[in-house]
């Protein structure tokens, strides 16, 4: 079992940066692929970024490529999402999730564990 707690959200102006963190509990964190998803009001939860268990493979949705970077520190059991050049359309609740298959996936169905989410608001 893995428990996930996100932090680092907040209010930022367009063009600014935030770094989200997701702290995990559980002994097998290093075996899991990790992902970030987001959900804006009235919209479905969508994939943002994912990272394989060893960090070798990363995946991003097109709208964040070149602006967001996902990374992990297995010793600290933490995954990060560095968000630069933020835009108002990035406003959403951001969730981290753990995928036991370890390879990283764009599909919500592959993720067994989810955090409670952290709000990111980008003002224009």
Short summary:
The chain is mostly beta strands and 124 residues long. It has no helices and eleven strands. The strands form two sheets. Strands 2, 4, 5, 6, 9, 10 and 11 form a seven-stranded mixed sheet that branches.
Explain this structure.
Helices cover 0% and strands 49% of the residues. It contains no helices and eleven strands. Strands 2, 4, 5, 6, 9, 10 and 11 form a seven-stranded mixed beta sheet that branches. Strands 1-3-8-7 form a four-stranded antiparallel beta sheet, with no helix packed on it. It starts with a strand and ends with a strand.
Keywords:
124 residues; 7-stranded mixed β-sheet
| Number of extended strands | 11
Count the helices. How many? 0
User: What is the beta-strand fraction?
Assistant: over 45%
**Structural Rg:** 13 Å
What is the averaged pLDDT score? 95
For the sheet with most strands, the description reads:
7 strands, mixed
